[in-house]
């Protein structure tokens, strides 16, 4: 079974708005990572947050992690059309030796 | 650096045929993995390796074999292709398991 599950499955917003997507996972983790995938392309790493961190920023990205709720959120501020993509969270597997991805959130930003 | 390379980009097979998807990285990464991506299913882990000579199964290993004889290469073998293996296959690598993963461009496989 998949470790991480993103919510919502799809999100449509206007340029300039903020986009928030969530990830829930099932077991203890070492870290949680977020990736972006543009249509038909490979995944690109966005940000990694360790289990002892609560919040991390990178440019217009803000990631939070709540280990007590086994959940994380990715906030993209001031969205642009170029942010249109699928976003995936990834966590260690139960044995901590493999990276397991969720099904992703598809973000559509219209101008 | 070329990063992670995958060949071929596209492949069409007939049911029962075998083939090898190639993956190579030039970053001296210890960890390499194979995923398949199907619509609505996200990425599912097929096999992974934490170093040369060491491989392990992921979520969906049936019908696939791997080996890791060198740090650079991690080929994925389809033993007897089935239509259910029609998918996009991604190879990824990282310094170690828990670090940032670098993905290849993918191989789009169709099994008729």
Looking at this protein, list some descriptive labels.
heterodimer; A: 111 residues; mainly beta; 6-stranded mixed beta sheet; 5-stranded antiparallel beta sheet; 11 strands; B: 112 residues; 7-stranded mixed beta sheet; 4-stranded antiparallel beta sheet; globular
Describe, in short, the structure shown.
The complex is a heterodimer of chains A (111) and B (112). Chain A is an all-beta fold and 111 residues long.
Kindly report the oligomeric state of this protein. Answer: heterodimer
* Number of beta strands of chain B: 11
Measured as a percent range, the helix fraction of chain B is under 10%
Contiguous helical run count of chain A: 0
The percent range for helix content of chain A is: under 10%
What radius of gyration of chain B results from the CA coordinates? Answer: 13 Å
* Rg over C-alpha atoms of chain A, rounded to the nearest angstrom: 13 Å
What does this protein structure show overall?
The complex is a heterodimer of chains A (111) and B (112). With 111 residues, chain A is an all-beta fold. In chain A, the strands form two sheets. In chain A, strands 2, 4, 5, 9, 10 and 11 form a six-stranded mixed β-sheet that branches. In chain A, β7 and β8 form a beta hairpin. Chain A is globular, with a radius of gyration of 13 Å. Chain A starts with a strand and ends with a strand. With 112 residues, chain B is an all-beta fold. Chain B is built from no helices and eleven strands. In chain B, the strands form two sheets. In chain B, strands 2, 4, 5, 6, 9, 10 and 11 form a seven-stranded mixed β-sheet that branches. In chain B, strands 1-3-8-7 form a four-stranded antiparallel β-sheet, with no helix packed on it. In chain B, a hairpin with a 7-residue loop joins β9 and β10. Chain B is globular. The N and C termini of chain B lie far apart (36 Å). The model of chain B has no long low-confidence stretch (mean pLDDT 95). Chains A and B meet through β4, β5, β9 and β10 of A and β5 and β10 of B.
């Amino acid at each position: 079974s998949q470790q991480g599950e993103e919510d919502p499955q799809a999100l449509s917003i206007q340029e300039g708005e903020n986009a928030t997507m969530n990830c829930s996972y099932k077991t203890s983790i070492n870290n949680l990572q977020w990736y972006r995938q543009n249509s038909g392309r490979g995944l690109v790493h966005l940000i990694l947050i360790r289990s002892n961190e609560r919040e991390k920023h990178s440019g217009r990205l803000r990631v939070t992690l709540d280990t007590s709720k086994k959940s994380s959120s990715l906030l993209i501020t001031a969205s642009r059309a170029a942010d249109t993509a699928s976003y995936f969270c990834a966590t260690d597997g139960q044995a901590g030796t493999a990276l397991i991805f969720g099904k992703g959130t598809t973000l559509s930003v219209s101008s | 650096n070329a990063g992670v390379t995958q060949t071929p980009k596209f492949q069409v097979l007939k049911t029962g045929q075998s083939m090898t998807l190639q993956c190579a990285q030039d970053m001296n990464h210890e960890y390499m993995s194979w995923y398949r991506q199907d619509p609505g299913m996200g990425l599912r882990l097929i096999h992974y390796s934490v170093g040369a000579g060491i491989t392990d199964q992921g979520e969906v290993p049936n019908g696939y074999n791997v080996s890791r004889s060198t740090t650079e290469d991690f080929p994925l073998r389809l033993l007897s292709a089935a239509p259910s293996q029609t998918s996009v296959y991604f190879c990824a690598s990282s310094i170690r398991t828990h670090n940032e993963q670098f993905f290849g461009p993918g191989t789009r496989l169709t099994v008729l």
